[in-house]
Amino acid sequence: MALTLDSVSKLFTIEVFEEAVRRALEADGRPAGLKVVGHSVELGADKGTGYLGVVYRIRVQLSDGSELSLIAKGMPENVVRRKTFRCDYYFEKEVRFFTQVAPLFREFELKQRGVEKVAVDTFMPIARCYHAVSDGENDFLVFQDLKTLGYEMTDRVSGPTVAQRRGLLHTLARFHALSYGLLRLEPEKFTSAAKAFPEPWFSQPLAPFYEDYMFKLYNIWRRALQDELQGTDYWRKFLEFGPDAKKLFENMCDSMRHVGPAVINHGDAWSTNFLFGRQDEIMMIDFQIMRHASPMTDVSLFIFSCTTEEQRADAGGVLAILDDYYQVLCRSVKELGLDECPLSWEQLLEQWRVNGRLGFSSALELVLLSVVETEDVQDLDRIDGNEPVPLIDITQFKDVTDPEGRKRLADLTRLAADFGMI
Fold it and tell me: What is the domain-level CATH number for residue 251?
């Protein structure tokens, strides 16, 4: 069946579509008076790039013979998938980011850094959003198509290059600096914005949704680690971290304790949520798991999910990576008008120890996803029904049997244990 605007959302009417096109043409500086003479809708992302939404590419034919490409992101059509993954909750967060927080951050950055600097080197590199609406049933967003500017997603399995990893870390530091700038200079605005992003995953009231699921992933790791670590102190600490589903999730929730000043985090800072340009320029995408938390929740998720032991060693070790992040953060907050960084190096290290546990907890899922080839990803839209089902029933992960994969899991477990996270 051919895809249409209605495939994205019932609220994506021709009037909304034409208004989004008008805004895109205006932002691009195209000549006034161009008309839409046709359009087509196709899927815009491979299976396995996200559970929470469906990405579409809309090709628009214009009256002067040129073409415009837009990206739309809509709710999954499958009811079971929507309800099981709480898609309405996550879409509402992303719509709130693009309609409320992103404009606030942009206004603050323009005021503090000036139009010229922001135009060529913004602290918040994101796609333009031309429409965003959330009603819990028909949520969708329409964006600039970054692919037309040369941006691509890095391979999920092989991961980012050295330059891309460093650029990603610096992007997080500069994005976090916007929060710290607002926190110090316009605290009421920051506090109001931060309230919109409570913890979306590792919170005790959410245990019914995620507790058994995370324990299932933990046990896949346990089987993979048995030959690698059994009989060592690392094995003991790993077993103590998750003796049962309840205790495992409690330990994961403990990673969200605030240590020092918190920021508005990207929330899902692994490599598939960043697009890379031809010169390794970076754009941040997918803001559905935003949280108000320690910046080390973002940084630890990146380190645990996007680096190997060898890559960390080549970068000088974890402390060198953290120092690289911190130096960029300090320079960025200074450029925003602060005399000193609200986060001290000592606080950062304590955040890394306490909140870095989130990185390890998230890696239980993300690292398993990173080793799944696209053709092995389950088609979640084939599940019949109208009610949510347990996550463990519809997400399938194979045991990690290859030596390289097992080594990676063991290395990450040692990393968590060495810093007292488990």
Answer: 3.90.1200
